UniProtKB/TrEMBL annotation:
Pfam families tied to this protein: PMP22_Claudin
Keywords: Membrane, Transmembrane, Transmembrane helix
TM stretches of this protein: 12-40, 78-99, 111-131, 151-174
GO cellular component entries: membrane
Membrane topology, record value: Multi-pass membrane protein
InterPro entries documented for this protein: PMP22/EMP/MP20/Claudin
Localization of this protein: Membrane
Origin: domain of life: Eukaryota
Gene3D superfamilies named among the record's database cross-references: 1.20.140.150
Protein's name according to its UniProt entry: MARVEL domain-containing protein
Amino acid sequence: MSIREGFKNSSVVVIIAFIDLLIANGLSMFAFSTTSWAYINNKVVNYQGYGLWRICATTGSCSLLDGTRSEWYMKVQASGIFGMLGINIALLLVIFYLFVEWWEKDIELEVAAILCSFVGAGCYLLAVSIYKEEMPNWVAVSTDLEFGNSLTMAKSAACVSAGGGGLLLVDVIVQAVKGSLIKRRSVPN
């Protein structure tokens, strides 16, 4: 099946959900890989930026955070991983639903995409909430701490992913209602 046929044979709701999940995927990738979840905004520490995996100064020097022994930071990293995976898998399932003939309009595939998009959103929101709660206690100069763009992108990815999952849920409900109406019409009195 071609891309054009996949879009032509799908409802507008599923196409919008696909675009939502594509945007959520991009936001998720940026949030996951950039070093601006938080900043220390003073000249002593050279405007250090904190990401999930690195701490970087504006001079370009970085220190790794993977393998950190801080339990809360490991929870944030794990939640970020599951958030990104949930959104990625949801997008992949919607691509299969739209464009792979074998899985075309498979309701179980759509339900799996819904679950993955909500799990991804929930995990990213969990990562954000833990990060915002614990980060001020972790850095020595919490008065100079500012939350950055990567944290905002993680929240945005979660919201957009949940929106895509909600649209897919609407499509499933509409299909179920249409299916029950068709069955009622075909049942003889």
